[in-house]
Structures are given as C-alpha cells and as structure tokens.
Amino acid sequence: MTTNTSRYLIVPMMVLSLTVLLAPANAQMTCPTTDDMLSHLPTCTTHHYHSGDINNKGVYQSLLAKANNAVDLNDQGNSEAAVNLLNALINELEAQRGNHVDANAADMLIMHAEMAIDEISG
To answer: What gap in Å lies between CA 63 and CA 90, rounded to an integer?
Structure first.
C-alpha cells in the first residue's frame, strides 16, 4: 500500500517537472502571492531579468536597487520612504513597459509593488 501511495506522489511531480522543462523560454511566470510581497519583490524582479522579460542590465539594476532599498527602509521602520521608493519603481516600470521591460512583466511587477504598498500602509 505504501508503494502505491508514493508512486502516485512521484508521477505528478514528474509531470510538473517535464512541463516546466518543456515550457518556452519566454513563458510568463506568475509571482506567487505571499504574506510579505515587499520582501519577495527583489526576487520577482530578478526572475523577470533572468527570463528575458527585462532585457537591459542597467534597467534591471535600477529596478532591483529600488526594490532592495524599499525592503531595507521598511525593515528600518521608515515605511513612508519605502512607499515613496515603491512609487518610483512603479513609475520606472510604466516608463519602461514595452521598451526594456515586457508589458506583461511590467504589469505583474507593478501589481506586486502596489500590493507591497498596501501591506506597508495597511
């Protein structure tokens, strides 16, 4: 009985792995909803750079710096400055949408930043 149960657990994991491996390189990945959207924002930004959704290293570094600095400022208790920096991040994403940031990725990162602002402000 135990062997059958583990066999059923392995098969879906193998299918998922094959799906991920066979997905197109430019496939959009959704950023997971977490209890701490702010701390996850730098990771999500990096994901979009590595997947090619952000196609300019300077733009990526600028976005990542804003995300990391917002996390640091919030951790230091300066939530107002963190929100201001997240708004600057949103402005940059809007300016780069369709240029150096894929439109879908820009929309996703903007939504992510807005959710982080809601967390900080709420």
So the answer is: 9
| Lookup result for tokens 């995300």 | 67
Alpha carbon of residue 22 to chain centroid: 22
Assigned domain for 13 exists? no
Residue-level pLDDT, tens digit, the chain, 122 residues: 444 444 444 434 333 333 333 333 444 445 655 668 999 999 999 999 999 999 999 999 999 999 999 999 999 999 999 999 999 999 999 999 999 999 999 999 999 999 999 999 98
**Reported pTM:** 0.74
- CA–CA dist 26, 53 (Å, integer): 7
User: Looking up tokens 């879908």, which residue turns up?
Assistant: 104
> How many structural domains are present in the chain?
1
The answer to whether position 37 is within a domain reads: yes
- SS3 helix, strand, coil % of the chain, rounded to 5? 75, 0, 25
Domain boundaries, position 63:
26-121
